[in-house]
């Protein structure tokens, strides 16, 4: 979901102490018939995962999670109605931010076909959860996210590393001018201020997307679901408290939603190798070498919606959340067999790498001087 904000940094230098096997140099695929069959390596790993039953659906798990979140949502709404015009509403707003972020993780899993067998059923779940309950455009987000999954950290193809709120590569930073160059030089200082704004961006992008010209799948349905969500949400808030407190409620809710959502998506590719436009790294290594797992056990899995197992998620996007931990064991073992780097860090180490890299990128801001064409032609 964070791709729309452009909040994912990229970094090829990571020397901090971390629980990780050091990355091997990126390997380009060989012409057919020379060297190991790297495509076959992925098929071999996929066969091991499938034989272990790790691609089987876990509908009971998702039913329980969804029921629990609906109960939490109902309790929060009841509290909002009962508390009235009181400062306690801000605690309920924060709780709503956590609940809607968790619902967003379910929408993400529906987009990857993790919940049901058929695409139609998963899309229906995604629209219900994403548009109606969370208030973001499911189809718009899924389109960009699928592009990222196909080409993670690949310049020119992964929308997550295109220049946006932050500038991600020295080349892009060098092209900045004026106020933008000043901001880019200091962007590391703004990181933790801007990250929470992801919640506002995701909601705004969803509304803009459904009204944008061009082909848009299920446009009328998405508009209707977003409209119902907006009407119910705003009626709930402004009929339960004063206008001033209502705006504070909206702010707290979206800030907490943004923090929870960004914290699950931002760390998983930041600080990992960026692939050049002409890269021909095979699928297995492309997904592993550009991804990072986050340690933290079951707590991290719950808070991040399973995205702490980012390597396994990228290798097997349709794998249900409960199977990711077991898949990690198989993938780590396979990486050891074949000398493929496998990276895991704590969340603190990941953020330290991100901020350090943003500062390093910022040093290049505005350094690409504009030369006079005539002088350039004369070699001056």
Structural summary, described in words:
By secondary structure, this protein is mostly helical. It contains 17 helices and 2 strands. The chain has one domain (about 1-375). Helices cover about 60% and strands about 0% of the residues. A two-stranded parallel sheet has the order 1-2. Helix 3 packs antiparallel against helix 4 and helix 9 crosses helix 11. It is globular. The termini are far apart. The relative contact order is 0.19.
Give the SSE map.
Layout: H1 38-51, H2 59-83, H3 89-111, H4 119-134, H5 138-150, H6 170-174, H7 178-185, H8 187-194, H9 198-211, H10 219-240, H11 243-265, H12 283-289, E1 293-294, H13 297-303, H14 310-315, H15 324-338, E2 344-345, H16 347-362, H17 373-377
Parallel strand pairs: 1-2
Helix pairs in contact: 2-3, 3-4, 3-11, 4-10, 7-16, 8-16, 9-11
In round numbers, the mean pLDDT is 86
Q: Report the portion of residues in β strands.
A: under 5%
Strand order of the largest sheet: 1-2
Total strands: 2
Shape: globular
Helical content stands at: 55-70%
Structural class: mainly alpha
| Order of secondary-structure elements | HHHHHHHHHHHHEHHHEHH
Regarding quaternary structure, what we see is single chain
The whole-angstrom Rg is 22 Å
List keywords for this structure.
380 residues, two-stranded parallel sheet, globular
What's the gist of this structure?
Helices cover 60% and strands 1% of the residues. With 380 residues, the chain is an all-alpha fold.
